[in-house]
Amino acid sequence: MRRIITLLTDFGTEDSYVSAMKGVIISINPDTTIIDISHQIPPQDIMAGALILSQAAPFFPKGTIHIAVVDPDVGGKRKPILIETDRYFFVGPDNGIFSIVLQREKIKQKIHLTNKDYFLRHISSTFHGRDIFSPIAAYLSLGIEPAVLGKKIKEIKELEFKKPYAKNGRIIGQIIHIDRFGNLITNIDEGLLKRVFKNKAFEIKIGGNIIKRLIPSYSYAKKDEIITLIGSSGLLEIAKRDADARQELGAEKGDRVEVRLRDTAF
Question: Which residue of 56, 69, 75, 188 shows the fewest CB atoms closer than 10 Å?
Fold first, then answer.
């Protein structure tokens, strides 16, 4: 029996939304284990939700059911969906929130959730997290077959974001997330850096700033130094020790990041 259900939302914890979802789940399956990934996703920030889900989901055991609800178009035309992979189930809105995590998964089937027998009786147009996604996840945890929950579909929505690319010995990427510490997380992964630069030293330009030091961890940074490192998700990050790199550099999500061999003019 599948018993672990995770929750990721932009609901925060001050209101009743998260507890209502949990109440629905344990009313259907009292034996399930519910784990919060995060409820502090910035409101309506689907990209942030997608990134954080992708960082946490792979560390859960096989059979885990992941609910992700960052849903600015709730009640609109977007579909409620279930995605089954070799390892997990993902339940939430069809708005791209699963785009990143699915890059490392082998998809078995995609289902448009249409069988109202597995929804709550009364469905709010503004709270599908409680009325559709939570009961669906709970029934999955009891062993209900995904096929009875709706109809198979071929396509789901992908987030529209630029992937990093290499050109003329340079990598062009962008900031895709800024965490609560002000660290700037880029879409440039460690594998791409190694393929382009091998073991050669590189430098990074963001705005009018050039950063030349790549360090193994924050403890190697000097006080007030702007540095780069490979974060726990395998992505290149820009940080300032004990401070906020976002404020220091005036950076925002979507800002361009350039990487090339050190001491080469940008």
Answer: 75
